[in-house]
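**Entry details**
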Amino acid sequence: MQVSNTIDCNGLSPAPTLLRIMQALVGREDSASPLNVLVGADCNCERLADSLGELAEEVQLASDAKQFARIN
């Protein structure tokens, strides 16, 4: 079974976005590569990263899936 390393939180408000990220990080087997999170253009990524605390290092936020190719 292939597990995606990207979750789509586009259109979600901050609380459900944070919850989905936390759920995706629990029990991740491939912690060597970051979890890609697609968020809306209006997302305050800095505030979301602050809410994640130390886990923010395991997450890459982007408002366009094409950004992940440039990041990774």
About this structure: The chain has three helices and three strands.
